[in-house]
Amino acid sequence: MLNAAASGEDGEGPWWARPDLRFNADGELTLAGHRLGEMAAAHGGSPIFFYNAERVRSKLEMVHGALRRTGLAHRVFYAMKANRFTPLLTYIRLTGLCGIDACSPRELEFALACGFEESDLSYTATSVSNEDIEVLARHPGVLVNCDSLSTIRRLGARCPGRDIGLRVNPGKGVAYGDNRLLQYGGRKTTKFGIYREHFDEALALAMEYGLRVSRIHFHVGIGYLPPQLPMWEEVVGDCAWFVDHAGGIESVNLGGGLGLPHVAADRPLDLAAWAGVIERHFGPRGVEVCVEPGDFIVKDSGVLVLQVNTVERKRQTDFIGVNGGFNLAVEPFFYGLPCEPVPARAEPRGAPRPVTIAGNINEALDVWADGVLLPPLEEGDYLAFINAGGYASAMSSDHCMRGQFSERLLFPRHGAQA
Questions:
Q1: Where are the coiled-coil regions (predicted)?
Q2: 251 near 286, Cβ under 8 Å?
Q3: Is the dihedral of CA 326, 330, 332, 335 positive or negative?
Q4: Chain segment 272-316, per-residue pLDDT in tens
Q5: Which phi and psi angles does 67 have, rounded to 5°?
Q6: What is the pLDDT of residues 174-204, one digit of tens each?
Q7: Residue ranges of domains in the chain, CATH in brackets
Q8: Which of 82, 209, 277, 282 is the most buried (most CB within 10 A)?
């Protein structure tokens, strides 16, 4: 919900505002200095995603800065499943700030096509097929993490002697708002990783095939913020057991899951506190630390702009209909990770009032926001949905044959900041 009382990064404006995302003096919403409503109109009004390239670079530098202060050797791998827009991936490669976290053969090949080297790729998949293993065999430089005994056995038979990592599951999960749908571990047994009670068997299998286990990998959830850091520290402490038990571990991959604010009440993740957890548990062990953020790097760099096509009151509810639905950004609908709706132009038409924003998909679930406070809108206006840079276009579908959208990578203009 819009909340003008909450200040943005620069201490002014709504909670989501920052130097590169704000209303300009003319009341137009801008990203990296570009007027979003104007560009959407020039595009014909059809759904379009905009991404600020320099914001992506800035977020990568923030992660590096936090890890650098721990004094530990570290690497960053961008989880490309969050957003695989080709110009964006190519730009990320050119920054030289990270490698790629891939989870399928096509992602692996796509990353290579965008200029990454095999040694830049951390590959962690689940329900791995023999066809997948054949692809991995053709790319011996890729850092493979096995998340099951079956994968260890079949990869070992095909690639004996290969250096591997083991994805483990500590039996605990951490996620935005403690949402179980976003947790990869917990009381319920999940498909991800090797549990402690099977770990010795995993090590024995690796030894049987001459595989060298040099890495431990874990990823336990999505979008955690300050309230979840105590549980995340428990997870990190539990995963240190696997490092000690295996022996000879050179690198620990903590996965991703770093969150960012979605509503005014959310506080940004304290990267210093996050890195402090890492330092406390892995500093004494002298291992290299790797992380695989996706959302944290790209989500707030992106905005989805949709056009208002319907303004109508039904009973006691004011509906705003737009020309895009959950098939363009599933997270607000399926996982409760909202994309804040913001008018592309701040028009002085009257006081904000509660409205329901509905998409154009013929499903009851297709409601962007219910009871959100917005100023009066007219048909033909544009709405920008904040935090649409990750797990939106990459997860899109052509449901109801309404999957058409465009994407543009933006660079700062007119002195805009990242």
A1: none
A2: no
A3: positive
A4: 999 999 999 999 999 999 999 999 999 999 999 999 999 999 999
A5: -70, -35
A6: 888 887 877 788 788 889 999 999 999 999 9
A7: 21-53+300-410 (2.40.37.10), 54-298 (3.20.20.10)
A8: 82
